[in-house]
Design a protein that fits this description.
Blueprint: E1 10-18, H1 21-31, E2 35-39, E3 43-47, E4 55-59, E5 72-79, H2 83-96, E6 102-105, E7 109-115, E8 121-127, E9 135-136, E10 139-140, E11 145-146, H3 149-155, E12 169-176, H4 180-190, E13 194-199, E14 203-207, E15 215-218, E16 234-242, H5 245-258, E17 262-265, E18 268-272, E19 278-283
Parallel strand pairs: 1-4, 5-8, 12-15, 16-19
Antiparallel strand pairs: 1-16, 2-3, 3-4, 5-12, 6-7, 6-11, 7-8, 9-10, 13-14, 14-15, 17-18, 18-19
Helix pairs in contact: 2-3
Domain VOC: 10-127, 169-284
Pfam families: Glyoxalase (PF00903)
Protein name: VOC family protein
């Protein structure tokens, strides 16, 4: 089952403000293996399949080091099509000598964690089959167990890493928020996500269509954490795809009723969540 196509709501792209455009392009192309889709004087857009814009990098004069202990991006997650791709990616990272920040078995998936040159967290992962996920009373079982690296590496034998494979998507995005209850109200009541896992009192996982999560929320940077300034390197925007224009109108009406400020940009709805993170709601 494809959880990253309509009628599900999924993250399609992410916009990052960077301190050094050449450095970031080198990382995303040479280390992660993205393809350059478009370039401008101050920006580059990247794709896995050579057609779909997934990551937009932009440099603005005066951009400072990514501010700590703020709301916004915790990590964005790149979902690879098959487990063998993840095994080959791990072998590639070892060969490149690139430092890993972590590696986990989440029961529903296996994941490798790294950071880009500006300190943005990135998860590269592969899902286990959906029929192997364990659900109880509407919540999916997830954990953070040690990854069996040897077994994963053996899965990638015979497949040489040559860049992000076609079919790679942004599987989910995980955000620092200032107030978990307010964030839940916005993403669930206003946008239409469903809670699929409560991780104690400090984190929440949301999805549509029975996925283990399209959105993660946490207060690990502290309840009441402020939003970053406009000069901070990091995520400036992410795009959620809605199923169709009818769904767009329903979501727009709920945004109006919630009192959240928004603007309309062509077919996109631009809105900030209660923690100050900007997102675009779009329809193909």
């Amino acid at each position: 089952m494809n959880f990253h196509q309509k009628p599900n709501m999924f993250v399609e792209s992410i916009f990052l403000q960077v301190q050094d455009l050449n450095r970031s392009v080198s990382f995303y192309t040479n280390i992660l293996g993205f393809k350059v889709l478009k370039t401008s004087n101050d920006g580059v857009s990247l794709s896995a399949d050579g057609k779909t814009e997934m990551i937009i990098l932009q440099y603005n004069e005066g951009v400072r080091e990514r501010e700590a202990r703020k709301t916004g991006l915790y990590h964005f997650a790149l979902l690879l099509p098959e487990r063998r791709h993840l095994g080959a990616f791990l072998a590639h990272m070892i060969k490149a000598g690139f430092p890993l920040q972590g590696a986990s078995d989440h029961l529903v998936s296996e994941a490798i964690y790294i950071a880009d040159p500006d300190g943005n967290g990135i998860e590269v992962y592969a899902d286990r089959p959906a029929d192997a996920w364990v659900w109880e009373e509407g919540e999916v079982e997830m954990s953070s167990l040690p990854l069996n690296a040897e077994e994963l590496l053996s899965e990638g034998i015979g497949y040489e890493w040559s860049g992000m494979p076609e079919g790679t998507t942004i599987g989910h995005i995980h955000l620092h928020v200032s107030d978990l209850k307010e964030a839940e109200k916005f993403y669930c009541r206003t946008l239409g996500y469903e809670v699929v896992n409560r991780y104690g009192s400090q984190a929440l996982f949301l999805s549509t269509g029975g996925y283990h999560h399209h959105i993660g929320l946490n207060t690990w940077n502290g309840a009441g954490a402020p939003a970053p300034s406009g000069e901070s390197a990091g995520m400036k925007l992410f795009t959620i795809m809605l199923s169709d224009m009818d769904e767009r109108e329903k979501v727009l009406e709920r945004i109006r009723q919630s009192g959240a400020s928004f603007t309309l940009d062509s077919q996109r709805i631009l809105v900030h969540d209660p923690s100050g993170t900007q997102l675009a709601l779009s329809v193909k």
